[in-house]
TrEMBL record:
Its EC number is 1.-.-.-. Residues 42-254 form the ER-bound oxygenase mpaB/mpaB'/Rubber oxygenase catalytic domain. It holds the Pfam family MPAB_Lcp_cat. It comes from Kocuria oceani. Keywords: Oxidoreductase. It comes from the Bacteria. InterPro entries: MPAB/Lcp_cat_dom. One of its GO terms (molecular function) is oxidoreductase activity. PANTHER family: BLR2777 PROTEIN, ER-BOUND OXYGENASE MPAB_MPAB'_RUBBER OXYGENASE CATALYTIC DOMAIN-CONTAINING PROTEIN. This is Oxygenase MpaB family protein.
Length: 296
């Protein structure tokens, strides 16, 4: 498992040896944070299902032309995809496992970076519009795509959710508010309804095709590629038909026979989980803080 473990740590944390300083710092702080052991958020974000969830979130976010313009025109995802991934993971885990001050700082940092992500884009209706990554509608779409992806992937490949799907959507609404979403949904039904309202704004096209092609064949270590291909196929299979059509994807089949993508992805995630261990360093650091505060 050692070679796989090193490559996975490099992919997700940016380094094979040791624990990043920001994760160790999650043991600091003077309160319990927004979420605790036994919460829906800890259950969902602590499972291996977060890996395919990240892919599903990126595919879904790319369907909003404004969100996609910000990524294409202002990020270096092609030159440094692992750096961008590590930055996203840092924000997610800081909000999930850090104290409230750390969550606020991490979110404020991302919002400051987003203030410079500006430009114009062509909407699904063909009209040109200005955008800023902090615009309320773009912040809401990113939050909805993230919540949908992590919930649906955990339902397919994770364990039980304390309080059920509604509890996860309601709890993770905190992250939406930290990122400037005015009224994030607080139930599974509310999440689905809000996603439907964005339908007329979503579009495919050459830019989407380019992102899909990159996500289908990212520059990963060769040892990780077979497992990633299984995960990508399973993520595509998990998406609603309308999103698949806009993304230019089809459900994986061998002739007329659907491929068993869900089981293949589950096996891949089991191997990854064995390599990385049951408890991640972010959760372990949070537990040390909670023990120090007498919360555990």
């Amino acid at each position: 498992m050692a070679p796989l473990q090193d490559r996975l740590r490099t992919t997700f944390a940016g380094q094979a040896d040791g624990i990043p300083a920001w994760e160790l710092a999650l043991a600091d702080g003077e309160d319990a944070g927004h979420f605790r052991p036994g919460s829906a958020v800890w259950a969902v974000h602590g499972s291996m299902a977060t890996i395919p969830a990240g892919v599903r979130a990126l595919l879904t976010q790319a369907l909003h032309p404004g969100a996609l313009a910000g990524v294409v025109e202002h990020s270096d995802y092609r030159r440094d995809p692992l750096g961008r991934l590590a930055g996203t993971i840092r924000w997610i885990f800081t909000v999930t496992y850090g104290d409230t001050a750390a969550a606020q700082r991490a979110s404020a940092h991302v919002r400051r970076l987003h203030e410079n992500v500006r430009g114009t884009y062509t909407g699904a209706d063909g009209l040109r519009r200005p955008y800023c990554a902090n615009d309320p509608d773009l912040a809401e779409w990113v939050h909805l795509a993230f919540t949908d992806a992590f919930l649906r992937c955990h339902q397919r490949w994770g364990g039980p959710i304390p309080g059920g799907p509604d509890a996860y959507v309601r709890e993770w609404a905190v992250a939406g508010r930290l990122m400037g979403v005015v009224d994030p949904p607080r139930s599974e039904a509310g999440l689905e309804e809000r996603i439907r309202t964005f339908g007329p704004q979503l579009a495919g096209g050459p830019r989407v095709d380019d992102v899909v092609g990159f996500l289908r064949r990212p520059p990963l270590d060769p040892l990780l590629l077979p497992g990633y291909r299984a995960l990508f196929a399973a993520v595509a299979d998990s998406l609603p038909e309308e999103r698949l059509a806009l993304l230019g994807l089809r459900r994986p089949r061998l002739g007329p026979v659907p491929l068993p993508t869900r089981g293949a992805a589950g096996l891949t995630l089991a191997v990854v989980g064995r390599a990385l261990g049951e408890t991640g360093p972010s959760e372990a650091a949070a537990r040390r803080r909670l023990a120090r505060l007498g919360v555990l």
